[in-house]
Structure formats: structure tokens, C-alpha cells
Amino acid sequence: MIAIGGAIGVGLFMGAGANIAKAGPSIILMYALAGVVIFFIMRALGELLLYRPVAGSFADYAREFLGPFFGYATGWTYWLNWVVTGMAELTAAAIYIHFWFPAVPQWFSALVFLVALFGINLISVKIFGEVEFWFSMVKVTAIIGMIVIGLGVLTLGFSAAGPTATPANLWAHDGFFPRGIGSSLMTLQGVMFAYVAVELVGVTAGESTNPKKTLPKAINTLPWRIVIFYVGALTVILAVVKWTEFSAGTSPFVYAFQKMGIPLAAGIVNFVVLTAALSSCNSGMYSTGRMLRGLATNKEAPAAFGRLNSRKTPALGILVSATLMGTGVVLNYFVPEKAFAYVTSVATTAGIWTWMTILASHIQYRRAVVAGRLRASSFPAPGGSVCSWIAMAFLLLVTVLIALDPQTRVSLYVWAIWATALTLGWQQVKRPVSA
């Protein structure tokens, strides 16, 4: 369920609106194409996980197959990824609360959610798992319900949207690529952000009761999750409502249900979007604490981050991460219109680093297996290293597209600053070793 929940977030519920406005119906193809690459990445990760399941796996595999610096850089970068994402999710959740309680101050709602999620993660990993299970259940049930209702509108013609709902909406309004293939490709940055978090199953591997059974199942079901939750949901919505009616800043799901005229639809979808934001932030707190503990264990972060409390959770790492997530409320207060785009582009760039590290580690692992230096995994990736190379080329393309877009280009500036900070930090980390 963590893997399912990781595949559904505000990148779909909110981000799809802007992507539809840029690409039209071709956005369906972009989500499908990105989904294939994500599956390659997850199968590469799955092969590594079944070779040696560890908590905080990305950094650990990078350290083993690419060298100490890459383990250090990947651990800190994935930590940054979730801290930044948590900033956006907390503020988004506070904004969603305004739908029902407009008089409640935004900072107060964000603080309540922050404290609640911090407490959940501090208590025990079992409580985290239970909460994330129900968060995921709400999202899965909601999307399936939306698809069923949308299919009903298309086939039976009920609701206010019935007379204009038709599969022809997918090509009748200036074609499947109404703004050109180039414009469609430029949406890949936003599309990839929607998939950030599917790799979280790798972070949970070290605390899974039976990883040899549960991990292959979670990873192998990824294609149908993508087909149903992304390709399926967007196909139905764009058939019910023509793409020209969607715009950035509006959830396509909320708008489609408003168009149908179904009572309470906006409130229901708003609740689902709120759940998605809280789920993402909850996952972020979980992963950041584990990443800091892994870094501390390898003497790449202060030793205090490696200590567990009486409930076997990395309390200090979770506390520091949650505190930094709280500063995102301030950021979103001062630049509310641009903050989400800036933060998501930074998160996507950090996600690309993580994914490329997984792929590079997998390529090196396969070389070691072929040379007879390491044992083969019980869950080999189809296509071996070839698919990993294809996925890496795709991620490099997305990076180039990020650089070409003035709005998302800022993430590369942030990345340059972050890379400098990591390099300087590495000089301090390795100094005691050489002494």
C-alpha cells in the first residue's frame, strides 16, 4: 500500500491541470512514457533490494557500487528532496482546509498537521504503516470511483456533462497534439514530479517483514497502477470534459466533477487531495529520518542522528527534518503563486539524481555479477543493464527540458548551490578518515 500511495499524489491531483493546458490530450502519452521509464527504474531497484535489502537503500547501494562520495551525496540529496516536498505538501494541506474553514489561519493548520505527522512518525514504524495504509486506501478508492463515474457519464450520458462527453474529445479539438510535440515534451518535468515517491518502497525495505515476498509484488504491480491511476483516470476525464476547459492552478478532477454537477463532488475531491498532501508529507518524514540515520551510521552526518529512541525510531532526524519542513510555511506565505512550481522543480531535480544513482548502481552491480564477483539477485530486472541505460538517457532528456523552461530552470541554480555545499561538506566528512 505504501507503493500504491507513492504513485498517487498532488502531482496528479493538482499538477495535471497545468500539464493538460500545455499538452492537451497528449499528456496521457507523456504519463504513459514516463511510467515505462519509472518501471525500468523500479525493476533495477528491485534487483538490488533482493540482492541485499537495507534501509535507506539508495545511498547504501551508491556507496557500494559508485563510491563513498556518491553514497554521501545521494543520502543528503534524497533527504533534501523530501524536506522540500514536505514544505509544499504542508502548505497545500493548509490551503485545502480553507475550503471548509476559511477563517482558520493558514499557518495554524500547517502547524497542526506538522505536529500530528511528527507524532505519528515518532511513535513507531507500525503506526506510520497503518496511517499510510489508510491514506493510500482513500486515494485508491477515490480514483477508482472517479473512473467508474466518468465511464458511466460516457456510456449512459447522465449528469450535466453527459451531452458533450465523448471519446472524440481526445482528438476533436485541434488533434491529439494540439500544441505540438515540443510543448508536450516540456511537460515531462511536471509529469516526473508526479512519480516522485514510488521509490519509497526501497526505503522501507529494511523494515519489511518479508522483503523477498512483498517487494517483488509491490514493484511488479506498478504497471497496472500507472495504467489505472494515471493513464486511465486522465483518459476518462479528458473524454468527459474537453481539454481546452482545464487550466493551471485548478485540479482537473475537481473541475470535471463540478462540470458533471454531482452534489458534494468538490468537497469530496478536496478531501482526497488533502489526504494526498498529508500522505506525501507523512512519507517524507519517514524517509528523511531514515536517511539521516543512514548517513550518521556511515559517519557522513552527526552521530546523534544515528541514535534510536525507545520505540526504535530515529527521533532526532525526524525532529530536524520536520522543523525544516515547517519553514516552508513561511516560503509559501511570501511567494504563494510561485512557491509550488519552484519547490516541485527542485524536488524533481533531486528525484532525478536519486533515480540516476539507482540506475548507475544497478549497471555496476550487473557488471559485478557477470564477472562473478557478486551473487545474482533472485529478482533480476528484465532487459538487464540495457533498460537502465535507456532510463538514464530519458532522465538526461528531462534535465535538458528543465533547463529550457525559464520557470523550472531555477531548480538547476538551486542544484548548483546544493552541489557546492555537498562538496564542501564532503571535505569535512572525509578529513577525520585521512587523519
The general outline is: globular
Count of alpha and pi helical runs? 19
Task: Report the portion of residues in β strands.
Answer: under 5%
Given helix and strand content, the structural type is mainly alpha
List low-confidence stretches: none
Number of strands: 0
Helix-residue proportion: over 70%
Spatial gap, N to C terminus? 47 Å
**Quick one: biggest sheet?**
none
H/E element sequence: HHHHHHHHHHHHHHHHHHH
How is this structure best summarized?
The protein has 435 residues and is mainly α. 74% of the residues lie in helices and 0% in strands.
Commentary on this structure:
The structure is a single chain. The protein has 435 residues and is mostly helical. It is 74% helix and 0% strand. It contains 19 helices and no strands. The chain has helices at 2-6, 10-13, 15-23, 27-51, 57-65, 68-97, 106-123, 125-156, 181-185, 188-195, 200-203, 211-220, 222-240, 252-260, 265-297, 315-334, 336-370, 385-404, 410-434. Helix 6 runs antiparallel to helix 15. It is globular. The N and C termini lie far apart (47 Å). The model has no long low-confidence stretch (mean pLDDT 85).
Keywords:
mainly alpha; 19 helices; 435 residues; single chain
